[in-house]
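Case study.
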Amino acid sequence: MAHSAKSSVSYVRTEMLPEQAPPVSESGLVKWVRENLFSGPLNTILTVLSLLAIYWVVSHVFQWFAYGIWTANSLSECREVRNALYADGRNVACWAVLSERWNQLLFGFYPAEAYWRPVVALIVFFIAVAPVMFNFGGRKLAIFSAVSPFICYWLLWGGSIWGPILTALGFVLAWLAYGQITRKFGALAGIVATILVPLIYWRFGVAPLTGLVDGILPIGIENIQSKDFGGFMLALIIGITGIVLSLPLGILLALGRQSDLFIINKFSVIFIEVIRGVPLIVWLFTASLLLNYFLPPGTNFDLMLRVIIMVTLFAAAYMAEVVRGGLAALPLGQYEGADSLGLDYWQSMRLIILPQALKISIPGIVNTFIGLFKDTTLVVFIGLLDPIGLSNAIRATTEWNGIYWELFIFIGLCFFVFCYAMSRYSQYLERKLATDRH
Amino acid sequence: MSEATPSIQDREINRSQMKVTDEVAVEIRNMNKWYGSFHVLRDINLTVNRGERIVICGPSGSGKSTLIRCINALEEHQKGSITVDGTLLSNDLKNIDKIRSEVGMCFQHFNLFPHLTILENCTLAPIWVRKTPKKEAEETAMYFLEKVKIPDQAYKYPGQLSGGQQQRVAIARSLCMRPRIMLFDEPTSALDPEMIKEVLDTMIQLAEEGMTMLCVTHEMGFARQVANRVIFMDAGQIVEQNEPEPFFTNPQNDRTKLFLSQILGH
Ligand SMILES: Nc1ncnc2c1ncn2[C@@H]1O[C@H](COP(=O)(O)OP(=O)(O)O)[C@@H](O)[C@H]1O
Ligand SMILES: [Mg+2]
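After joint prediction, the assembly is written out as follows.
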């Protein structure tokens, strides 16, 4: 270049300026407060008024919360303790209902000597999902994750260990049926066999086989009936099972709805529309009342199992639509890219399409999970003792008649903790899976 | 001469391996395709021998993309026959997957998988379709990434690369399957001018190694220098085909003349 730095032709910068920090008034807390709270006379007045209102509410509610009474055996005892402690007659919470009914709120009428079983089941569950949730571990952990549902089932309901083992065998049969029938009779027959074979086996094969093997080699723990399940344990069992099962089912339904195969497509569409178009509470009543008419007489099909199936199907229908949204958001080029490399349908779905579609759908999926989990409280209407049901039962006793807030605040708080945890996890997952901006 | 790519004319092209053989790579006979009632491809007849470099051009909407997408069954044809490497394209999924794994394809918008790293993009198909061991697939991938001159990007994600780099990764990804035929559908049309050259360079390099190529492109410089045959399509038909020199200097069909005058700006 011919121009020198001192050229008189025009001004030419010879040195680039370094970046500078913005002035204090343009950054940090000062800026935020000024812009958001005191940006004008009206805003300033509103800010001050709001602060006063917040102070008033917090000071009253805080007192109620913090001075609450934790040890008492009934509401009247609570009041006596309060009158003895606080002469000013202030209103305070009676948390004693929680400490006194703690076990019941958590476990319902589950036998006390078996409380360890649901706890262990929950730990097993977390160990099983951790590798999936945080993406680590190898084959061994994956196998553990696969068998963990059967371990949890056995821990919770007890009985002969052969029941869960022989039930699990149904999945192996389904897998075998898929391989064999698909090879011999084609894809459609394969899918039908995959669904029918295990269903027939579970309906007619498991019970006699279990009896047989148990007769030879009895191994088991005390059997506990579903009617004794209750409290947060019940909500968690229904919620977690529904969440874990509804995602894969929803994915299959979403794929089915996109499928070119006429029967699979129509089945998925009808299933989704019918299940989604009817309120969950109706399905729960169906589960509790009507199914008895349809099932062969004498079958004792556990109410809780029926509820879990209904909740799962209901959530799966929503899930299918959420996932379908993700599938539709993918550019066609992704399908073509996968096809052009010779990947078959399931490979391209599993490796290319679903990872991206599910990533897009995370907020919707978690939304459905949270909805499902809170909807478990609806089972109170068909007589299951979920936390709400238990709180009704507790309030019906003479000791705790007249108590409301403490129980409902506790229940609400517990649900909030679970749902908020799910929400945070989904945000973590979205951040982790973001590959477009680094 | 083409204005868009003056630079590739500087490149000395090594023709020693660019040999057209008698072996037939793709044979298309009386092929017709409809989208609903729209007759998009009409009576296409085309034989591609191994080693040929064919450039397909024509106005937008003339069916160029549809034609080359039919060759690897991304689109279904309704009449006539397509034979690729001796395998007749039919509805049999096995045949289709076999042909797809032997025919590489590069798209206008690259179609890389954004959730996988560059290396994973390249090893995915060899591992899952060819059942190549992971280590070997990675070595192959690195070999081809080096060939397209971006081995240092192997652990990045597609979204972190420039368009030209992404298209070169897409070429490398196809090459990892060791295809015998490569299809290109306007590989440079979505790129900024300075990136077009790097992609064309890669394509020339491929041609120099004797790859059979069918390219839909409007890079006429590339067509002149690399192609051994230029095909002009209009309204779903092959209107004219010739060697590049006579094709550009002495087009026969009026539509070809019109098209060339528009695209070369004469
Ligand atoms: N999926 C489709 N459905 C209906 N018409 C289509 C579809 N894809 C392409 N076409 C039509 O077919 C014609 C040829 O398209 P295309 O092969 O993409 O042309 P080109 O690549 O030469 O621009 C165009 O008129 C286009 O509108
Ligand atoms: Mg096109």
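Observations recorded in class. The radius of gyration of chain B is 18 Å. Strands of chain B lie at 24-35, 38-49, 53-57, 79-84, 87-88, 103-106, 181-185, 212-216, 229-234, 237-242. We will return to this complex in the next lecture.
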